[in-house]
Amino acid sequence: MIFRTTPSRTARPALRRVRTAAALRPLRHRLDPARMEEIPFGTSDGVRLGLTRVDTGDPARPAVLLLHGHTASADMFLLPETRNLVDVLLDEGYEPWLLDWRGSCRLPYNETGRRYTYDDVALYDIPEAVAHIRGRIGERPLFVVAHCIGSLTLSMSLAAGLVPGLAGVVSQGVFLTPKLGGRTSLRMSVAGELLKTRIDHIPVDFRKVGLWSKYTPLFALASRRASCPDPTCQILHNSAWGTGASLFVHENLDGATHDRLAELLGPAPLWILPHLRRIELARSVVRWHDTDHRYRALPPNALDAAARIDTPVLLLAGSENGLWLDSQRLCHEVLAHRQPQLDVSYAEIPGYGHLDTFLGRGAALDVFGHILDFLGGRR
Predict the structure, then answer these.
(1) Which of 14, 24, 267, 374 has a CB 3.0–4.6 Å from the CB of 201, allowing a cystine?
(2) What is the pTM of this model?
(3) Which CATH number fits domain 33-178+287-376: 3.40.50.1820, 3.90.1720.10, 1.10.760.10, 1.10.150.20?
């Protein structure tokens, strides 16, 4: 029989497989598994996060909380193929803590489930993780080393007075004064409007989406004038999820790290772009929720409330940062003029971009010394 008068059951389109549970993907590391304490942790607004403590066996060590960037995860501090930041902190007498906030690629929230803004990270994720850690470490000093959006949202938490009394903060890439390139800002605005009715996130792993998918034109655009044949590298190094920016200096990555990029960085949600665009246009970290009273603890503009920052801050940036450009130098200059009483310093790493300040094969030699000098002077 050639024709059917009733639809076939097999003709229904297959459902796309996505992660819907908040189960954390296991961390990859070379430490003794017995030392890795995975702590069940959720926020007061009902979101499950990931919190990991590296047990040192020494209850007197200062603690250091590590905050990843958006779509990254705690994995970025634990690379087994290089001497990573956790290795260095352990050797120098610190107790590392790693938070997978709701933008982590170890969690499903960027692709499915509950949507959020950076207000939620600043109001819930970071302050409640800090409170939990303080409940465990008592009076020991607590430092924070934060990367990219983890640093940007931390700046809002600090300006709101939600994480007082930190021993020191290392901010990498961007802090209170976000600054994107003109092309990046334009693409972000245009792409956000054109694509928001078709897709809700931009993936990085071409092997998962396949050739015949709605994402193929984005990967094709990212491959233009690319020197690396790997599609994941192209959409990150050559395009930064289609924005035209670059996330790292290619030559700084170890081969094994390069091959793991699709594991280390996940899909970027497009529904976060309106908040990010408002932040970038203001050249400051601004609150998204203006009428929701749940967020009234956050200041409308974190830069205007920077006087509440009560901890020393090291602003760190690679000289070749292709995403946030000279945001950190700008932040240092603005704070020196507007809030000269704050203890804020700036260090620039020659030859480094954005992500490679932590993922680079030589970061332990070229970057981490600046972090250790800062922490050591305040422990």
Answers:
(1) 267
(2) 0.91
(3) 3.40.50.1820
